[in-house]
Amino acid sequence: MFEALKERLESVFNTLKGKGKLSEEDVNAALREVRRALLEADVDYKVVKSLVDSIRGRCIGQEVLDSITPGQQVVAIVYEELVSLMGEDVVPFIISSKPPTLCMMVGLQGSGKTTSAVKIAKRIQNAHNPLVVACDLRRPAAIEQLKVLAQQSKVAFYGPSGGTQDVIKVAKEALAYAEDHLNDVIIFDTAGRLHVDEDLMEELSRLKDLVNPHEILLVVDAMTGQEAVKVATSFHEKLSLTGVVLSKLDGDARGGAALAIRATTQVPIKFAGVGEGIDAIELFDAKRMAQRIIGMGDVMGLAEKVQQVTSQEDVAKITKSLKKDKLTMEDLLLQFEQIEKLGPLDKVIDMLPGMGKMKELKNAELDPKRLKQSKAIIQSMTLEERRNPQIIKGSRRRRIAEGSGTTVQMVNQLLKQYDQMKQLWKYMGKGKKGFRLPKGLFGGGGFPF
């Protein structure tokens, strides 16, 4: 997401940072590139004009032209204006002080409404008892999809009975069901169309009148570009939206929707879908999004990911091994499992400040298949072999290769990488710096620590 935009902006910023003093011509030339980059990212042209004019007004002021570090000042201004454009404050999901909290998920067909409904329910499950309700009765597959996702996520589900096509009847029954089962958050997955039409809006309006929801969240596919803004405007005019959920932000979308929806409709973006997994949804934070767009990374987001996948028991195991300056294959397996839970490695690297500029990393083959093969090799070892890998000789290596469905060569490579990782472990345990990850680790090219 935003990859092309990020690269273009980084190029502009690098040019500016190389100059000791900026002239008005320098600023105008840079802003032409910023404007072109935003338009290529499919941001609405009116939003682009307003944003660039605002940046120009601040950049041509004396605070930049007379600054000791003018290039850095421009970066700071662009960052602040992007944050202002997308919404400075994180806007949370509304929870009513008087249960139940009622939420309607609306949007076009294929935007990701059904998945997003379950993702939000799953996200609040620790503090609440949510119920997802199938109100998309035009598409039978939608009911089954919601039911399956709810079961996988251990979220309560309610669907139509007897083949009814009456959305209002289903909603009334769901409200009664929720009261009996103490569900304090009810999320209605509504019908969608390939485009906005009067029949859809009429059905949604009737449902809104019945349930009087606290939240009406529009789910927008981030890959639809400027069309997303038109869709958001149409739904907002008819239903008075309270928020937007941007789905598929992990894809190859150019990102124009994220930058333009709030500026055009004044409706806050509340959630961002960042993957296919049922846990892959996060509160939309304009500051963190702007940091990633201009190449500053997202350290807070990465820290949250690590916190989510790391248990206290795992932390205790790693700490104990570090104190002993001893790395076992069991420790390495644990590390592999945690890395796997973080998601695609290239996405994780994008969250690290400055890593996007490192060609060594960008060109690395971060192959998840190699990660799985490495796990399989360790899992094919006996307990004694995992704790004392030095005993793994020829016959053992052949047995492990057969058991893991790999080759002796791959077993040898992992053992070599393990030896290199042991050295890194000792350096980390002693607080030293300057060590390099072994070349080829996880199928990649290695990078400095």
Automatic annotation (TrEMBL):
One of its GO terms (biological process) is SRP-dependent cotranslational protein targeting to membrane. It comes from the Bacteria. GO terms for molecular function: 7S RNA binding; GTP binding; GTPase activity. It is found in: Cytoplasm. Residues 268-281 form the SRP54-type proteins GTP-binding domain. Its EC number is 3.6.5.4. SMART domains: AAA, SRP54, SRP54_N. Composed of three domains: the N-terminal N domain, which is responsible for interactions with the ribosome, the central G domain, which binds GTP, and the C-terminal M domain, which binds the RNA and the signal sequence of the RNC. Part of the signal recognition particle protein translocation system, which is composed of SRP and FtsY. HAMAP family: SRP54. Involved in targeting and insertion of nascent membrane proteins into the cytoplasmic membrane. Binds to the hydrophobic signal sequence of the ribosome-nascent chain (RNC) as it emerges from the ribosomes. The SRP-RNC complex is then targeted to the cytoplasmic membrane where it interacts with the SRP receptor FtsY. This is Signal recognition particle protein. The lineage of its organism: Bacteria, Thermotogati, Synergistota, Synergistia, Synergistales.
